[in-house]
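Worked example (supplementary).
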Amino acid sequence: AAGVIQSPRHLIKEKRETATLKCYPIPRHDTVYWYQQGPGQDPQFLISFYEKMQSDKGSIPDRFSAQQFSDYHSELNMSSLELGDSALYFCASSYVRPGKGDEQFFGPGTRLTVL
Amino acid sequence: KQEVTQIPAALSVPEGENLVLNCSFTDSAIYNLQWFRQDPGKGLTSLLLIQSSQREQTSGRLNASLDKSSGRSTLYIAASQPGDSATYLCGSNSGSRLTFGEGTQLTVNP
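After joint prediction of all chains, the assembly is encoded as:
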């Protein structure tokens, strides 16, 4: 079965650089979520999109932005990178029925290292 | 704001034991609760999803229960195996996001 695809899998950047992470949801899934997992921590919700519109916003820094495109893939853009941005970034997707949450399927993650 | 707590933080058991992992959440207005497995440095694998209207879900050796009124869920693993060694995370779903506990790190010793 098709899973959530994330690219790149690993990314190394310098401080103050920019990074773009990509997520391709499971076919026919209409909702994409982004989570950040720091070392030894649980995943923290950043932002989600339903049918290409932002549906919820969590603890996402103003330096970060994201969008969902017409083919439902999503990109997380990160600017002015800081050392503390080093983390695993997960994308998840689901098919959401209105008024109900639904099962989220996670991608393998992008490991971002900021030097 | 939803807060999720998992107990214990770490658990080490001999192979073959049955074990229970606990998850509690502060806001009972959830749509569902998911249990995940995470191997070191890897992604999250969904194990079980319990909808808010359900009390229990089973998959193979795994059984998850949900008591919304008390804000608790448990994951029961029967006849544990060394391959079950991983971190187990519970996530409560408020409809648009998952809020995770800090996980239980399970080690099953041969």
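Two points are worth noting when inspecting this output. Chain B has no helices and eleven strands. Chain B has a mean pLDDT of 95.
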